[in-house]
């Protein structure tokens, strides 16, 4: 077995704890050695639970430790770009939660620093590692289903975020549909040539007053001719609804929801199935482990990470195209919002 | 029990045979007494199989028979409007297969004659009577699911029709999506305010050469704010794919495909479920019986038929709006193609 | 097309109406020409609804009509054996609802008369014609699943019959499990060598007071070594529960329940599937049509019927073996209750 | 938060690694501090991967460490009883993989030592902690389904163990069905009064030559009258098949198989679902985490463990009753094989 990759964790919040637990107990190729968090107590608590000795307030303590090979960035979004840049300059391999940033120029700057430094950057598009979605991608990419014709993505949250969050979120497309736009790119494997978005405020008028929508239907046209539809809602009362379907010339692959258990009740009032997994931490639990495995493996084997900076950037471009389509009530090509790029 | 409704059947083709069998053996309130078909032999064969004495070549023989209360029109589309008019003028109650016609002016003329004569006209939107779709409609209309937010319809045929048929069909929206557009109206129960359609030729280039598309994704915006997406393909290699979903503020109703049987095979190479029902005659078998039951009941009780002339007209208008959206590459409001009407 | 088989229907009750409707409108090879019922009014009503001219009180009127080729016996059980004998002596082909009789000696006598007369006798084991069960049988018999190892049958009624019926029914094994015992023979295609039955009174103490049980678990050992378990209950509050499973060396086939529709509701309180089909008329609707098609086809082609007198007899033998096993609290071989026969 | 429970792991094989990973990264209330294995290298490798400092060859090193609160016994079956006794005498809390032993006298001796020492002993009946089975138990125990009437357990392995293992395994009932017999006790919550077992050699004649069976159907009668059937096979070519069903007076709960993913393929040759989870490590992954959580929680709260020594003993008794039933070809009461006990 190769020497373990020594990892420092930046951010000990909800997602940091999840990655930390995986690194400590379930990934033999990695060894978690340090945790930093702006709340020192949070770093210390997580370190204690995982049997780790180093706990810091300042992430620079981790970046300056020459024994550490890689960092996992789980801090707040606004710190992603500067931490990516600092880590790259310190020669650390980087796993960063999505999004890199909400601003294309800042993304480009950070990706430039990464490119110069030569380190690996993997962006946390964890859904790509979900066993079901990965299987769907594999089937489509492998060609056994023929050419893709139609894509359907249903992505609905169990409840909207607090209205204060909505106000600074960048809007439904950048904040929520961005995952689905990445999934669309991942599944079809072709550039998106046109986006048409419709939206409505049906869940909570306060969301509309904050200048956002809570319900959306986004149509995509891919370079190869395939058509796609993404539907989003900020509130599905029955739980986190995450389904995809790729219809191809020789067959289709359909991914239904994960459920909390397999127990079905047959009663006089009807058949009652298990509820859906509650939210992303439950639904995508396995994907978080698998994406970290993939990151560690990429480092060990010196291969490109399965979701890199360009993917992180492309999804942001598509989200801005959807936003403009909604605003201008017409189909929009991605290059209209990103004259120099390619989605 | 009320006196049986005496019915004459016009058209002894595939769909005529189906309605004839239902009228002869499964609808106690109706009695099939005559069959007419331009191929006299077809009329005679069906009459013999069903134990009916009267078989004619000329539909007028049926219309002139004063003992006959109602006619069921299953002839070719171009004869629908004239037969509706003739039947109405003869005072017969009318069940007519869809579409009434492909031309709005001819539809309007036929509906005018029906209105004047005072007879009942039911249009054969059989899918509305499918037990699953009817249950979905009932749930949405009953309000237990709250307000509709999102609608999804998947409607894919097992194989495209002959190219000669495609050429005269009026195009995918009028010929195929029209059923789904009616279903959208039926399920949501609100006028459609805007249609945006995208399409592609991915199944067969000959369809493109004939000026049509074979794959489409149509977005609808309803008066109450709900958004809908219909996806169509002329060829699903795995069979006739007919699913709908209505997502509402308090829950969702999802209708999956009917399958040919309930036998699932577990084998080393995986789990293999039953194939889908082959095509519309198999998939919608039950709905044909139920729509005829509803027609007979409407006649017996003197109530309005559950799918009338206005419904037949509205679906045609939406199909033309979709076609224009595709042609002009922009969202289109139904009144743009039907200045005087309302979809 | 061959000349239609002319059929007389004996019995215009629930099951008679069902077969009558199928014969009148859905089976082109047959023509229903007469109906008899001890309640003349019932015969007349059904004849009127189906457009049939002959309606009688006395079944002999049908048996004496030389233009009639075949009879369908849907009268009460105690009249089955004498009507089979009379019909056979009149040279009519016979379809008879199950059971032939509850008494082995009377069964043997009736089968003897049929054999002498040379007419065809099909027994109404309709479940064999259910598309799902037939598919399971086809898979097992075709050998693609290898050798059968384990069989599971779940068969539960929605509600127990009236206690007066229970008292004269012959008991749960003869009255209810007999269908499942036939299904076991049909699916595995091997003689049963041993039966072990356990039972309990859990649904209604009155059933116990009537000397019967309402819950049973019956184990079968087949000649080839396969083992089977049948579970029965007189009351499943959630509806008619009819499932089978054959586990074989190279795979398994599992048949789940039919449901009333495909609409699933997702709501805050969980996922709610469609209820099961209510009872046998709904659940096995399709099988009744198919068994009658098979009967007509056997007559037209002069082949053996797919479920004959020997099958009817064998299921009764197994039911008596189960009863003795329960009474004597030990495994019982069928030949113990039928020294001269073979199940 | 309470002080973490300090845990020593005995055995670093397949199941030891699993428990070790859970203790290191996913159970904040526990802290893994030492690993012992007869293969020192295995202990060292696991310790390195989990960031643990102490790795030993001799389990006594762990038992003698006064800083260690509890041990998790994952060694070979024959060492379970002596390690339980030694750990109890050292005052360690004990989690021990099943079975305690195959010999009732040795089990009784070990349980006696545990009782004297006053430590907690939890036996690794992990399936009780499977979210689906736990949900089923909760529904039955909670009474919302009424009284249990029928139980069905399907438990089939993907492939038989090596024939050398079969020879020393104690036979199918003790080695394999024991899990299902515990599940039956767990789900119904009533003593078993009678067992009737049938068996066959259908998978591999070598298993028969080794004096064992590979296919079994076991019938149970519970004290409250409920009946149960367990079917077992040593080889299901389609994977690990683990289903249960409890049918009660007011409804039923049915637990289907877990699948490897949710991606279903629709293709011309039919619908293809995901394969089953491969074997117990995959299928019961979640249950292993939950059982260890329950053990830690029981220690922290000073409550009785959810599966204790008496449960471990009772399942062995039932397995021996099944074995005798098969041998003597008659129903057997558990007290016949355990005159002093109660199953």
Helix content of chain A: 40-55%
Order of helices and strands of chain A: EHEHEHEHEHEHEHHEHEEEEEEHHHH
Major sheet attributes of chain A: 6 strands, parallel
Structural class by sheet pairing and helices of chain A: alpha/beta
Tally of strands of chain A: 14
Under the CATH scheme, which class of the largest domain in chain A?
Alpha Beta
Strand residue content of chain A: 15-25%
Please tell me what the overall shape of chain A is: globular
Rg of chain A over CA atoms, rounded to whole Å, is 20 Å
Uncertain regions spanning at least 5 consecutive residues of chain A: none
What oligomeric state best describes the polypeptide chains here? Answer: homotetramer
Mean model confidence by pLDDT of chain A: 94
Kindly list the characteristics that best describe this protein:
6-stranded mixed sheet, 343 residues, globular, Rossmann fold, Dihydrodipicolinate Reductase, domain 2, alpha/beta, homotetramer, 2 domains, 13 helices, 41% helix
Structural description of this entry:
The structure is a homotetramer of 343-residue chains. With 343 residues, chain A is α/β, with parallel strands linked by helices. The first copy, chain A, has two domains: 5-119, Rossmann fold; 128-287 and 313-337, Dihydrodipicolinate Reductase, domain 2 (2-Layer Sandwich). Helix content of chain A is 41%, strand content 24%. Chain A contains 13 helices and 14 strands. The first copy, chain A, has helices at 14-25, 40-50, 59-63, 77-89, 104-117, 131-142, 163-168, 172-188, 205-209, 280-283, 285-301, 309-328, 334-337, and strands at residues 5-10, 30-36, 54-56, 70-73, 93-96, 121-123, 148-156, 192-200, 215-222, 227-233, 241-248, 251-255, 263-267, 270-273. In chain A, the strands form three sheets. A six-stranded parallel sheet of chain A has the order 3-2-1-4-5-6, with helices on both faces. In chain A, helix 1 links the parallel strand 1 and strand 2 (30-36). Chain A starts with a strand and ends in a 6-residue tail after the last helix. The mean pLDDT of chain A is 94. The interface between B and C is large, with 44 and 44 residues. Strand 12 of chain A pairs antiparallel with strand 13 of chain D.
